[in-house]
Amino acid sequence: MHATGISRRSSWMAAILLSGFVGTASPAAAVPSDTAQLFARADAIKMVDNASYQKLIEQLERRSAVLSDTDQWHLRYLEAWQAAYVGQNDKARLQLEAVIKQSPDADLREQARGTLVNILGISHRYEEAFTTLDQALEELPGIVNNSTRQHVLAEASQLLTEAGQYDLAINYADQLILIPSALNYRCVGVSIKLDAEFYKGPHDDALVSQLQRGANDCLAADHTLSADVLRSDIASIEIEQGKNSKAITLLRDTYQDMSKLQYQWLEARYNVLLAEAYWKQNSTSQAEKYALSTVDAALQGNFVEPLSSAYQLLYQIAQQKGNLRDAVMYHEKFRIADDNRLDNIHEKALAYQVAKQQVEANKAEIIALNKQNKILELQQALEHKEVESSRLYIALLLTVLASIAFWLYRLNRSHLRFMRMARLDGLTGILNHQHFVEEAERSLRHAAKSMRCASLILIDLDHFKSINDKHGHTVGDQVLRRAVAACQRHLHSFDVFGRLGGEEFGILLSECSAESAIERAEQLRIAIHATPIDDFSPITISASLGIASTFHHSHDLRCLLVAADEALYQAKRDGRNRVVINIASYTTANGYAPTHYPANAPSDRESLKYVAEK
Fold first, then answer.
1. Of 140, 432, 544, 570, which has the fewest beta carbons less than 10 angstroms from its beta carbon?
2. Model confidence over 305-336: pLDDT tens digits?
3. 3-state SS of 388-440?
4. Contacts of the segment 349-356: beta carbons below 8 A, 24+ positions apart
5. By mean pLDDT, which of 66-80, 104-118, 342-356, 574-588 is the weakest?
6. Amino acid 48: pLDDT
């Protein structure tokens, strides 16, 4: 199954769900007696022998003139499946939509909805995927075929896992598992449920035991792909717990069999996990080897999650080797990949919320229409009653309508509030990367028009990864929030403050000269370093800050980001917990070379000025 831009494991689950389904359309009496066998054979070998599957479709197409209406639509469904298998998702989507609208077989229509949900998710059309899923779930109570019911429930659980709705996903997976077995769907249900449990957490020994049992069950059912994914989850938890050797052994022992499956997403995940494990064991060469292999596999399939992790590792390896040029390059690639990963997560969560709001709004609209119909009926009846009674009924119904209108008003306000929240970083409450860029560019355009100076500060918390590794992500999240709070106490209402990714933040100071930016940056550095972390003593935090001013550079945000980033890396190289401003730059054989900036005689050869350090 061809898939692009899929986070987590949509690609492998898409293959499992599409391969595990068998249609139930019945042959008509007027067609050759072996037609039903051709349909059943085609359904059974879709993923096992796709070449033979294509030949069976061609046989059925040659008989299309004598096929019943039901079988014609069954053939259209099989053609749509093949189009999706070879990556022609737009063609498959149109064919499936036709089956849903026109097929006389309710079971086949439900099968098509389930497959369409899968294709829409792969194509990043998340809002349409949730709308189609809602329709499929609404029709599901009328479906008696167990295979079809399990197919739809599996799609629901998988899509909700992708959107971060883990409890709801687990609920649908449990419903799937309880249905009497059809086509080994039990292993699929267990795999999806454990997938949701893994991302929900916590990652304790009980979960590891469940994952191991699930992997063993899938191996017994010949679902090697599901088993390998669950084993990669186990390895991820072992790395998180510091059991790096155990994780490496598990991944290496199953690597050859995994490679035979030829699923790029799973290959990328195995490689990035091996890279992380070797890095934590200080095996730099092995870590670099598997990180580069991850990049190769992830770029081919555009798998943003392993790609982001691989670039982060390569950045750290380049830093350790002292190769600063490669470090800057990998850091920029990591930032882009991580932004894509976060945008993908945000896009799915937003699509779920929008679809949920739309369903609620539609229900409210139906209720309002029913109430209006009742009002008309009552008005007709009230013509034969006394005037006082009529007034009483109308007043009551108007009250009901007013309540519904108020409900719709509040629902709309809730939707608008959610859209506003989408601008903010979920952890710290400040602007996320995308909206920081938008606000900063708007502020810079205004400064350029009024010919006023502005300054950009980049802040990066020192040794933040070691805090995460030693104390856990919960403590790391608290450190990020307290650092942001410390900065906010020294910012003005018109300053633009946002999280650029991980532990890096950006502040655009409007109408601020380079000298003022230095003073304010030093205030921020002192405030961060003085931030109490009483709950997690003896943790102390510090930050490195890089400054770029429009006085020395342009009003172009990208230019300021590059200049401030150079200053930030200079601060890191010189010991951290300090402020550096980028005045200008010149290139030497070894890259950028900072020099001291004289008070009264600036020179084109001077690049960075060290302005504050502890």
1. 140
2. 898 999 999 999 999 999 989 888 989 988 88
3. HHHHHHHHHHHHHHHHHHHHHHHHHHHHHHHHHHCCECCCCCCECHHHHHHHH
4. 349/163, 349/164, 350/422, 351/126, 351/127, 351/129, 351/130, 351/163, 352/126, 352/130, 352/160, 352/163, 352/164, 352/165, 353/418, 354/127, 354/130, 354/415, 355/127, 355/130, 355/131, 355/134, 356/130
5. 342-356
6. 55
Q: What letter does residue 180 receive in the DSSP assignment? A: P
Residue (of 160, 246, 221) closest to 195 by Cα position: 160
| In the block, residue with structure tokens 């259209």 | 76
- CATH level 2 (architecture), domain 1-149: Alpha Horseshoe (1.25)
Reading phi first (left if > 0) and then psi (alpha if -120 to 50, else beta), residue 501 is in left
Q: Which DSSP category does 29 fall into?
A: T
Check residue 123 and report its DSSP letter.
T
Break the chain into its structural domains and give their ranges. Answer: 1-149, 344-421, 433-613
The architecture that CATH gives domain 433-613 is 2-Layer Sandwich (3.30)
**Three-state DSSP class for 20?**
coil
* Count of C-beta atoms within a 10 Å radius of residue 277: 27
Query: In which band, very low, low, confident or very high, does the pLDDT at 589 lie, cut at 50, 70 and 90?
Result: very low
Note the pLDDT tens digit of each residue in 449-473: 999 999 999 999 999 999 888 888 8
Handedness of CA 590, 592, 595, 600 (dihedral sign): positive
User: If you search the block for the tokens 């189609």, which residue do you land on?
Assistant: 132
Spatial distance between the Cα atoms of 97 and 565, rounded to a whole number of angstroms: 49
What pLDDT score does 395 carry? 80
Rounded Cα distance between 179 and 147, Å, is: 9
CA angle 398, 400, 404 (to 5 degrees): 115
* Tokens, residue 605: 């050869």
**Dist. CA 102–CA 81, nearest whole Å:** 17
Cβ proximity of 267 and 237 under 8 Å: no
